[in-house]
């Protein structure tokens, strides 16, 4: 047992030595060096580079005419809101008080046309034909366009393209002074054109104030008289269309309209009587709104644009208490009014079409029309859905309630704007007694033939 034990002990020692040599590496029998643990730390760095791009502010020019201080203030306010929302776009508002469309067309020739500008429906064909308008259908989504009343879009369409969206619209209505009516013993507004003239005489005789103010000329104000009495709607596209003035109803109603001033102002003053019809300047006013608001006349026929002007400039002259609105008088064949609309057109050559569109979209969209048109009582909204809005002014709601047999959009051919001005000049000459009614008619026929002969 002892011998066996010794053998086992020797074997164990040998194994231990061999093991020690293996652990030492190199066959050395000294104690093994301490074990070294190496830790590799990998650090990943992400470099974030922030680039600040300074976007240059873009300025666009916006030009329009003005229906008075109220409209200008409303636009300045909405422009301020737009610039807050789009701080990289500045808008310069320019008001052109006279010969607006002629001046805009001239600015194209000089290379200084504004980026965004008004275009009346009567001038739209001329601007479209001259290539002055950027097709709005190339900028706006169909869903945006579909918000607008279709009848307001028609004057601005050609060859399947739409060249503008209406900012609002208005219709002619009769504004009358309730207190002057009461003094004259009149209990309701006139219902017919003949009654309109009769009322004007009664008011002048009993109150010493002219009963009616009109513009000298104003072919578009005369058209409802003609059509409501049975004349066809005027349309001038070729020289032969001058024959519209040969229609017996046209001659009769044009004679009556021109004589409103000749008899109501010139002849009355020759008789030493108070005129029953005047133009605004005859009573020291700049336009019909002033003449009515100053209570210098009892009646005017004007559009919805006059409503906010009266509220702003003549706050003590109160709707419903001092004045009211009625439909345009009727003729023998029905009741007809004019509808007016204006687009915010975009310059076809603008260097900033996208910025110009952002401005147009802001002003004409639901928010812009809610603020500028509905709440401010500017005119009537051109997009659908606001008819019963609680913020719509009662004066505007009342005009929408009137029933008409026809509502004519201000457009009678490809050169309506030019014809309107020249027709009105001829009518004004006849109203002042410088030419006869027959001579005025011949002049207007010649204007059609000359303008449309090319």
From TrEMBL:
Tree of life domain: Archaea
Pfam family, one: SBP_bac_1
Native organism: Thermococcus barophilus (strain DSM 11836 / MP)
Annotated PANTHER family: ARABINOSE-BINDING PROTEIN-RELATED, DIACETYLCHITOBIOSE BINDING PROTEIN DASA
InterPro entries assigned to the protein according to its UniProt record, in alphabetical order: Bact_solute-bd_prot1, SBP
Name this polypeptide is given: MalE-like maltose/maltodextrin ABC transporter
């Amino acid at each position: 047992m002892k011998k066996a034990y010794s053998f086992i002990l020797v074997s164990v020692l040998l194994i231990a030595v061999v093991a020690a040599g293996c652990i030492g590496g190199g066959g050395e029998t000294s104690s093994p060096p301490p074990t070294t643990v190496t830790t590799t730390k990998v650090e990943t760095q992400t470099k974030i580079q922030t680039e600040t791009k300074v976007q240059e502010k873009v300025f666009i020019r916006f030009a329009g005419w003005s229906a008075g201080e109220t409209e200008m203030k409303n636009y300045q306010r909405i422009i301020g809101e737009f610039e807050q929302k789009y701080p990289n776009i500045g808008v310069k508002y320019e008001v052109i008080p006279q010969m607006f469309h002629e001046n805009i067309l001239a600015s194209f020739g000089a290379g200084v046309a504004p980026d965004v500008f008004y275009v009346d429906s009567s001038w739209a064909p001329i601007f479209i034909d001259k290539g002055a308008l950027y097709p709005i259908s190339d900028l706006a989504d169909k869903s945006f366009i579909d918000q607008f009343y279709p009848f307001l879009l028609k004057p601005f369409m050609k060859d399947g393209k739409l060249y503008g969206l209406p900012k609002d619209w208005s219709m002619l209505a009769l504004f009358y002074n309730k207190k002057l009516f009461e003094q004259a013993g009149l209990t309701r507004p006139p219902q017919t054109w003949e009654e309109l003239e009769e009322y004007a005489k009664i008011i002048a005789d009993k109150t010493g104030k002219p009963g009616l103010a009109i513009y000298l000329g104003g072919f578009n104000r005369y058209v409802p008289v003609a059509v409501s009495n049975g004349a066809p709607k005027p349309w001038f596209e070729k020289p032969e269309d001058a024959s519209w003035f040969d229609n017996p109803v046209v001659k009769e109603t044009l004679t009556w309209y021109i004589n409103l001033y000749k008899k109501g102002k010139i002849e009355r003053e020759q008789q030493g009587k108070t005129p029953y019809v005047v133009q605004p300047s005859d009573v020291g006013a700049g336009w019909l709104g002033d003449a009515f608001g100053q209570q210098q006349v009892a009646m005017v026929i004007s559009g919805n644009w006059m409503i906010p002007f009266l509220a702003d400039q003549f706050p003590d002259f109160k709707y419903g208490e001092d004045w009211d609105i009625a439909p345009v008088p009727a003729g023998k064949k029905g009741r007809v009014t004019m509808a007016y609309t204006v687009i915010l057109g975009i310059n076809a050559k603008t260097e900033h079409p996208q910025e110009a569109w952002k401005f147009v979209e802001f002003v004409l969209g639901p928010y812009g029309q809610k603020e500028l048109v509905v709440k401010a009582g500017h005119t009537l909204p051109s997009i659908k859905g606001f008819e019963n809005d609680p913020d719509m002014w009662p004066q505007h709601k009342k005009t929408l309630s009137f029933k008409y047999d026809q509502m004519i959009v201000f457009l009678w051919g490809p050169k309506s704007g030019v014809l309107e001005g020249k027709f009105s000049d001829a009518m004004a000459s006849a109203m002042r007694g410088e030419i006869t009614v027959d001579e005025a008619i011949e002049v207007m026929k010649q204007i059609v033939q000359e303008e449309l002969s090319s």
